[in-house]
Design a protein that fits this description.
Length: 431
């Protein structure tokens, strides 16, 4: 293992850092605290770490004071908690003068190694090392960090490209800020259509349609096999894949384990309800899916009502649909949810007293600052517009709010001062 570590350290210091598209997220280095970078596989966590390295080097740090190890490199396998000490020994043997200098250690996908958190805690307590770890499991937050690293970590969540980042990747320069002429509008309407189809995973941006779908399908397979089946020793992969297909083909809808369990039984697929709850928890843990509860002050109401489920990226939806969905509004709603989630918000859905649903309510301690957002693909049809506006206004009245927003695909209307009816491309750039 020492020989392998010696080679990997030399390789890293010899390589040039890749050319980067800078992400908007930032990361602060705080003494005696570990930085934790989380997110789904292939969403850009490693490149974000390279961005931090580049910033440190631009501020005068020698590259040799950086150390990066990727624990998905097969040359590091098998790797145990005891082997972590070899990392320190090998590094300081090569650079003994750095023992008394501030150095930076990046451990990529380290959650695969049991006991990583205790090693990081020891480093924070005993060494002049700032540590950054990455992982494609939200359990980094809830399990390991909640024990060994409680109060000793700062977390940054990385997502696939947002629409703004997608435009930057395409080198679209919005010189006019938020004022758009007819040419800019036409261009942005076209580009958001491409974004809805391509999604935001960095690696697939330059690929043709067929290869992009193949790569994205491979992403999903890796999540299923490595992050769920292998990590949790799941044997009933038929039920697991059926669950994933069901959600991907019905995004932005309420999901009931009981109903899905009955559906599996009718298909002759054996699975317990408890297993389905576990599978869903594992898939949320990998950042593939996000769950949104109903808005209510009653914990019982929140518990008994099904949660709505969203998928991390529109490109995955396009690549995995067994058939093109007629519910384009669900695709748009999924896009809106992920935009809110990128901002660190935790939206809920709201049901009026008459049983109508508003897609998102953003809560706030100051009740007057709560926001309601309804998503509708097309409101040209008078009956559709009347229904959506009436639902939103009913919720506004029940909650005592004076304004609401309807996000559409292309429609815009500012005639009603209480409502902002705004096309998605503009809303995504303005928010």
């Amino acid at each position: 293992m020492k020989n392998i570590l010696d080679l990997l350290i030399d390789d890293f210091h010899e390589r040039e850092l890749p050319e980067l598209m800078l992400r908007k997220q930032s990361m602060a280095w705080v003494s005696r605290k570990a930085n934790v970078v989380i997110g789904m596989r292939r969403s850009g966590k490693t490149w974000f770490c390279y961005q931090q390295m580049q910033e440190l080097m631009e501020n005068g740090l020698e590259k040799e004071r950086l150390l990066y190890l990727n624990f998905e490199d097969e040359r590091l396998l098998p790797f145990s908690a005891q082997d972590f000490q070899f990392v320190l020994e090998t590094y300081y043997r090569k650079f003994p003068a750095f023992k008394s200098k501030q150095c930076y250690l990046f451990l990529d996908e380290v959650h695969r190694i049991d006991g990583w958190d205790k090693f990081v805690r020891r480093l924070l307590d005993t060494e002049q090392l700032s540590v950054c770890v990455t992982g494609s499991s939200s359990k980094l937050l809830s399990t390991e960090i909640a024990t060994s690293l409680r109060g000793r970590s700062l977390t940054t969540e990385i997502f696939p490209f947002s629409f703004k980042e997608f435009l930057r990747y395409k080198k679209v320069d919005l010189k006019s800020g938020l004022r758009f002429g007819s040419k800019a509008r036409a261009m942005l309407q076209n580009l958001i259509g491409r974004y809805l189809k391509t999604g935001g995973f960095p690696e697939v941006q330059a690929l043709d349609d067929e290869l992009r779908r193949e790569v994205l399908q491979n992403y999903l397979d890796v999540v299923i096999l490595r992050d769920v089946v292998e990590r949790h020793s799941i044997s009933n992969t038929v039920a697991l894949r059926a669950l994933i297909r069901h959600i991907i083909n019905a995004p932005a809808t309420r999901f009931s384990v009981n109903k899905f369990y009955n559906s599996l039984r009718s298909q002759g697929i054996a699975c317990t309800k408890n297993n389905l709850y576990d599978y869903m928890d594992h898939l949320v843990d990998t950042f593939l899916f996000y769950q949104v509860p109903i808005h209510s002050r009653s914990e019982r109401v929140r518990r008994v009502n099904p949660k709505k489920v969203y998928v991390i990226d529109p490109g995955l939806l396009e690549a995995m649909f067994l058939q093109i969905t007629d519910d384009r509004g669900a695709l748009l709603e999924n896009l809106v949810f992920m935009h809110l989630r990128r901002q660190g918000l935790a939206p809920e859905y709201y049901v009026t007293k008459n049983g109508a649903e508003v897609d998102f309510i953003l809560t706030a301690k100051d009740r007057s600052k709560r926001r309601l957002i309804q998503v509708c693909w097309d409101i040209h049809d008078p009956a559709t517009q009347k229904r959506e506006v009436h639902t939103l206004q009913s919720a506004m009245q029940e909650l005592g709010l004076s304004r609401g927003t309807i996000v559409t695909w292309l429609d815009e209307d500012v005639s009603d001062k209480r409502l902002d009816i705004v096309p998605a491309w503009k809303w995504l750039l303005a928010e």
